[in-house]
Design goal:
This protein is α+β, with helices and mostly antiparallel strands and 357 residues long. The protein has twelve helices and nine strands. The strands form two sheets. Strands 6-7-5-4-9-8 form a six-stranded antiparallel beta sheet. The protein has a three-stranded antiparallel beta sheet with strand order 1-2-3.
Amino acid sequence: MSTWADLEAAPIKQIWQELRSLRSQKVGRAIGGDRRATFNAALEQAEQLFTAASSIGTATQPILLFYGLSQLGRAVAAASNKVGKEYKLTGHGIKDGELQGAASLGLAQLVVQGLPNGSFPVVAKALDASPMSEPLPLGKIWGLLPGAERFMLPGSGGLQRLVLTPESSFIVPGVETARGQLYPLPMELQLSVADPAGARVPVEDKVIDKEKKVLGEFLAGYPSLMGWSLPDPVQPIPYGRGFYGTQPYLDVSLLFPKPSDVDEGSSLAQRGVEYHGENYIYPRLDRTMLPAHPLLLWWSVLFTLSRLARYEPNVWLKLTSVSEDASAVPIEYILGEATRAVPELALRAIIRDAAGD
């Protein structure tokens, strides 16, 4: 079954054509010399690695995908206006836990952590994203990838990405706020209730205050939502309800500060990451007040899977056997999704950084 994101996603052939077109342009700081040479060579190698990965099976696919992603990260760093001489990436800059435990404890329990030095933190700097400097189970990272819920990795989940959409794409002169709809929020955030007819049941002020406090505590985990406010701070929170896949969720309209000469759509888009046509909002994953970035989530997942495939081939073959392990189909799906999602994310990151957003 196709989702709206599937329909909105650009064809992978088009993504690679757009990446190829950047190689003849002066993109960000990759305008000449070694930075431009690094940028162009990294994109060429990445395309070849991803093309090869799309034609092989799961036994070796994550190895090619990870090194293709690593080269895309090298191109992102070379073009970035936020990265200095460290654009010459060295070392992975990330570590995982005991790989053999994936067979007995489950793939989702493997721990991943960004390191102070190496490629990973440099690309995080280029993306203004969390360097993931604290240990985190792979399952929590995996669950943040859009589409991962189609074939759930056993033990994954626990963190939530959100979608932020504008309620208007027009510029209203002098207006310095943007109104956006945020979803899918957990159902337990709503403490006030509605009657069967849909009308709001009168609630005490203390319930309203507590509900706002609960919402504030939840949204505090999403750095890019800073500055939000309610359209009517006196009334109960105007939650709506819907379904995200098969799961019920809440949605809410919020106001965000913006420059008066920027339309609401553009203003809200700058707070998130475009991914298959959706504007996703990610939580922070460490003590920094920086959100996670899906390119780095993919980096974490593919790094771990590639190491399993290389250094623990017996464990890897068991995990990818559809008749032996419940992780096999989620792994197949996520590797297939990587072939189209990762190049698109890299393209968006390069263009956005070069534009100064």
